[in-house]
Every structure is written in C-alpha cells, then in structure tokens.
Amino acid sequence: MVKFDHEFVGREALEKIAKNPRRTKVTLALDSQDVMQAMGTMFDKGPRAKFFEFPSAVYATWPYDKVVKNGKTIGISTWVGYSSNEGKMLTLAILDQEHANMGSEVTFVWGEQPGTGSKPTVESHVQKKIRAVVSPVPYSEVAREAYRTT
Hey, what long-range contacts does 53-60 have (CB within 8 A, 24 or more apart)? Predict the structure, then answer.
C-alpha cells in the first residue's frame, strides 16, 4: 500500500517492514452450518448473534472482528459478505503469517466484543464463534486465474 518511488519521513523503517510482512490478506470461507446457526438466533428471545445482512454484513465503517486459533488472536476480519456466485459467506481478513496457510482452520468471532461500547446503529448482541477455512484472495478461482496477472 506504500510506494517507495519518492523520499518521505519513515521510508527506511517502512522498507524494512515491507521486506518481512507480519500479516497476510486472505479470504475466510465461513462454515455454512455455523452461519445458519448464528442466523437462527434472530428468532430467539434470548441473546442473539450479530445480525447478518445480505449480501454485505458490514455493520460499521471499519468493522474489526477478531480471528482466533487455539484461543489466541491471530488476526482481524475487515469485511463480511455473502457471495451468491460461490454460495458462501466470506470475509476478508488479515492474519499473522504463520496462520495464513491455505486450508488452515481458524475461528471467526462475529460481533462486537462485550464492553467495547455501543454504536447506535448496532443492535444488542453476543459474539458468535464461526469456524472458517483460510482461502485465497480473490476467493473465486475464475477471478484468480482469468481476471488478473500475477
């Protein structure tokens, strides 16, 4: 995201960071059964999961839902949405390098963390853990293979 074609304060430090990135952008393919279970809470009287809106379930200007593995936070999800082409709920996520292997299983934690305040446009909800598989960006094989060059 940073171009090094000109001089600027901090360039040397950012060039070092760019050579060894700590995180990688990936797609998370959410487990359909877990998503349907979370959506089913919309009809319960008790605590509900954060509402999923279709096709895009983004509930804030900059949502940051955490991604965990073995109880440790390994990254964040910045967008959630349904792909009708793929028939899947997907997220764009930034994960620590060591957990960004394609096919790895992680847990997407949907919704705001309790006690972090409230947004007037976000309904009261509880967090819901949803299994996910680390997948490529873009998710669609056609888009990866035919739309862009590497």
Answer: 54/82, 55/81, 55/82, 55/83, 55/84, 56/80, 56/81, 56/82, 57/81, 57/82, 57/89, 59/119, 59/121, 59/122, 60/119, 60/122
